[in-house]
Structures are given as structure tokens and as C-alpha cells.
Amino acid sequence: MSDNQPMLSTSNLTCAFGVLRAVDGVSLDIRPGTMTGLIGPNGAGKTTFFNLLAGALKPTEGRVHFNGVDVTGMSPDRLFHLGLARTFQIPRPFRRLSVLENLLLAPPKQSGETLTGAIFQRGRMAREERALRDKAMGILDFMTLADLADQPAGKISGGQTKLLELARALMGEPSLILLDEPAAGVNPSLTNVLIDRIKELNRQGMTFFIIEHDMDFVMRHCAPIIALAEGRVVFEGTAQDAQADAGLLDAYLGTGVA
Amino acid sequence: MIGVISYLAFFGTVAAILAIAVLGLNLQWGNTGLFNGGVAAFFGAGAYGAMMLGGPADPQQLGGFALPYPIAFAGGIGLAALVAWAVGLLTLRLRHDYLAIATFGVAVALEAVARNAEWLTGGAKGMRGFPRPFEGLFADQFTYNLAFLGFVVIILIAVYAGLERLVRSPYGRVLRAIREDEVAARALGKNATRLRLEAFVLGSAIIGVAGVLYVSFYAFISPQDMAPILTFQIWAMLIVGGAGNNRGAVLGAFLIWGAWTSSGFLLSKFAPTAVQIYTGPIQYIMIGSVIVGMLLWRPQGLLPERIERTKTGNEAPGENASQG
Hints:
The complex is a heterodimer.
Chain A: E1 8-17, E2 20-30, E3 35-39, H1 46-53, E4 61-66, E5 69-70, H2 76-82, E6 84-86, H3 99-104, H4 115-120, H5 122-142, H6 158-171, E7 176-180, H7 188-203, E8 207-211, H8 215-221, E9 225-229, E10 232-237, H9 239-244, H10 246-253
Helix pairs in contact in A: 5-6
Chain B: H1 2-31, H2 39-54, H3 69-91, H4 96-116, H5 118-121, E1 127-128, H6 141-167, H7 170-180, H8 182-187, H9 192-218, E2 220-221, H10 228-241, H11 246-270, H12 273-276, H13 279-297, E3 306-308, E4 315-317
Antiparallel strand pairs in B: 1-2, 3-4
Helix pairs in contact in B: 1-6, 1-9, 1-10, 1-11, 2-3, 2-4, 2-9, 3-9, 10-11, 10-13, 11-13
């Protein structure tokens, strides 16, 4: 795919709850290799928009295309198989699974994940598990979580849980990762680790679409930046454009941008 | 001496049969988080299924068909699985307490069917005369009962080993992930709907195995044997033993069945006559108290679930959190 082709694009995407149009005719493109930032005040429809992209909600109107395929209304599990992964605003670790198991679980099409495979294809399953374990330990190492591999995921800190969610998503070898407020509720030193890892993955070619309240984070790391307010796109451009347009952003976000 | 051995064989046979049902429930609740409130229905389906296929012909009923034991055995399991599949399709969208209420209702309805559909189930008087398997091979009843205990224990071990294999595999890992957070499991590509249905049907089929063995042992089945108290007994066994731990499930079955039979014996032997007539209700209260007490003071059970320590190959005790 050429760089001009969007990896993900929406056209007139709308999600209405009764009279409330939480997402109201959003058309936008996510280009491959970008770290696209999505900002907007509370209630602007950012997470609802993510839920539409990830299949957790079905749109009232509009289409979503992912890598050229119409994926409108597709279930989250099928989207993950197509290479679209996400993390959650409030992390959702599998609490009584170990950190390592949280990762081992993620890759699709494991032969040991079917009833017959788990009982009859023991050799193949064991080989797959060994390979997955090596891969998972590599990712945990990269995410600075290797020492916690055997800990129950419910026992690690909130910030570590954010790292875990990203690590878990990576196991599925996605082409696009939706991050919902990765830096929220994370202590500064872990935030730095997280940002550093995200940027490193982006350098290696991973595309990110990031909801973030931390304007400093968005201005410094995200390009392009898209702003939503009341379910509509109100701004699209670079950080410089945004700063030039500070009056507009200020009005919508109520935060000092510069 | 023979009397004691004979009694222990009898006790062990029933406890082992119930342990198989507890293992089936453990796959559903302990591993997948499915609150099956209708255990008795699948137990009954297994027992009635086997009786209809393998039992002697009765002119007043549709069955039995006096088919060979393996066919009756498989048919009983098949009926339990079929009922579970139908119930699962209808109710598995429901979560937790709603699923419990729906499955409890199904069990009560099926018990009413067993009690009233005389042309099919013999009604309240039940069905009798199931030909006990391999009985002709043994000279006397005592040897036969020991052999039957062995037969049940072999099946218990096979079910235990098969389930251990399953829950330690990636399949078991996915089931536990669905139990922990279904939304996250879906976001990681897991078809939670299909997996929940599979676990529900497989667990119910295992509960059906217990029903088949029960009718094989007593040669008799009536609606009384699939009353709601059975569901509560099986649940008490799992909660006391430790949900999510197959060894706990078996331990709980033997402990609770021991407590149940000995409390019945003690009440009938030593309690004043005025109290004795309430033996049943007193036992019901005891089962309820055991469930509540356990959930309050040791929700993880006697043998808690173990979290896989995949790196080192050892295991660490699970988190002391209750489910539900």
C-alpha cells in the first residue's frame, strides 16, 4: 500500500443514542506510519469514536474502511484478526492470569485454543507455546515488564497495567493500535517509559491513533492532530497549525495550548 | 468388617459420581465464569436419557428401549449436551446472576416435565429397572459394588485428567480470560460467544456423565433426584473445595457428601423424634450455611485456584478474591 492510501478511514461516521449524536458525521483518515492524536473536551465523543472503530459499538450511519476493507459494524474479535488492536481508557487486564499469560493469550489462531487442538495436538501446541513464550518475553523485556512475568496481572501497578495492555496488543502483530489515554493515571517515570516505547514502535513503522488529554504529550509527539467537539471534527492539522489556531482550540478545550 | 467396607464403597461411589458433576460445574463457573444455576437439569437429563435408552420396556411409556449400556451411556451424555446447547443458545447472552436465574428456571421446568410427562418419564413414580452394567460378571453383590466403585473412580480420573489437560492448555487460558474480562478478550480477537457455549455444553455433558452413572448405580431415577437441592449440593462442593481448582472440586465433593450423609445419620440416630422429622430441612439449612459461611470467610475455597507460573513451571497461589 502506498503512503497516500489511508490505513483507516471513516466517512460520515455517526453514532446516536436517542437524540444525542455522540459521534456526528465524522470523516477522517489515519495514514500509515503516523502517530495521529485525537483531542477534545470530556464528552466530545472520543471514546465513542474509538469504540466504533474497534467494533465495540455499531454506528448508526457511515462507513469504516481498514486497509481497504469495509469493516463497518465488524465485531472486535474479527477486527483484531485483521490487525486492528486497542487499549482501554480504564485498563482491562485479565487479573487472575499472570502477566505472561496475558500476552500468550493474544495471538490469534493458536492450535491449542480449540477443544480438539488442546486435547489431541499436544506436540504442535507445545511447539507453538514455546515460540509464543519467547516472543512474549521479548515484548515484556521491551516494555520493561519482564521481571513481572509471573505476577498475577491484578497485582501490578496502574501504570504497569497500561504497559501490559500495549504489550498484549503487540502480541497480535497489529498494523494499527488505538490507544485510549495511555498516559492517564500513570506516574511520570512510567509515562516516560510508555512514551519512549510508543515512539520506538512508531519508528519501527507501527501506526498509532491516540486519544490523550495531556496536551503537552499530544503537541510534542502526535502528528497530525485531530480535535473533536460535540461529536464533530473541529480541527485537523499539525501541532504548529494548532498553536496558530489556539483561539479555536482554547474555545473548545478550555485549556491553554501554548 | 464387610459391613464397613460395603458402606464405604457405597459412600465412595456416590461421592465420586457427585465429584464428576462438580468437575463439570468447575469448568463452567471456576474456569469460564458461567453461573449455572441448573446443575440438576443436566444431571437429570443424563440420568433420564440413559434410562430411556437402556431401561426395560414399559407398555405405559415411550421407552425404555433396552439398548446396550454403551449406547445408553452415550445417549445420556448426548441428551445432557443437547439440553445444554439449547439452553445455552437462549441464555448465554445473560451475565452472572441473570444467567443463574435463567438456568435455575430451566431446571425447575425440566423437573416439572419429568414429574408430569408420564408417557415419557413415568411421572412422579420415576423409572426403575435399569440393567446395571456388567452385573452378570460378578458372583455376589459385594464384589459387584466394589467393581462398580472402581468403574466410577476410573471415569472420575479420566474426566479429571482430561479437564486438567484442557484447563492447562491455551484453551483453558482463553476460558479464564473470558471469565476475567469478556470485553478485553473480544478485543484480543477471541470469539467469546462460541467459547462460552462450548464450555457450557462440555461442562453440562460432564454433569450428564454423573447422571448416567447415578442411574447405573441405583437402577432407578425419579424427579426427586433432580430437585433443586442437588444444584445447591454441587455448588457447595465446588465453593468449599475451591472454584477454579479441579483437585478442590473433588475434595469438596467428598467433604460435603461426607458431611451430608453423616449429618443425616447422626440426626436420625441421636436427635429426639420431634427433631428427626425435620432432618431434611435441617440438612438444607446446613448446606445453605456452608455456602454462605465459605463465601464470607474463605471465598477462594480450601484449595484455591493456582495462577500459572509459566516461566518457571511452578505455580503460585491465586489471588484471594471472590468471583461474582
